[in-house]
Design goal:
Layout (H helix, E strand, L loop, with lengths): L21 H7 L7 E5 L2 E9 L3 H18 L4 E5 L3 E6 L9 H11 L14
Antiparallel strand pairs: 1-2, 2-4, 3-4
GO cellular component, one term: mitochondrion
Protein name: 4a-hydroxytetrahydrobiopterin dehydratase
Family: Belongs to the pterin-4-alpha-carbinolamine dehydratase family.
Amino acid sequence: MDDLSIKKCVPCDTKDLRPMTEEAANNLIQQVTKWNLVKEGGVLKLNRSWKVKTFMKGLAFFEEVARLAEAEGHHPDLHLVGWNNVKIDIWTHSVGGLTENDFILAAKINGLDLHHLLSKKVAE
């Protein structure tokens, strides 16, 4: 298996880009620990949640993810729920489902050093 964290997202406006099958997604999910494969409204997505120390740490968390997403040209849905719960949903909006880009971004988010922002109860 290729290391997803060293791959680069491809432009989503490529006409050949198609959503992957659920079977393909189930194979790739094994490479992005702690991410969940969910189906919402018939659309496959990746999601993951974290608990941060404070509201401001949640915003700083999103800023780190946003820098990465901008560099990759692939942008997740970011949610701050309550004052200290952050959630990220990743899917390729332009194809209405998952592509390898989503797994690449999830792997790269996993590689970010965000522990200083996380609640000690769940930080690893």
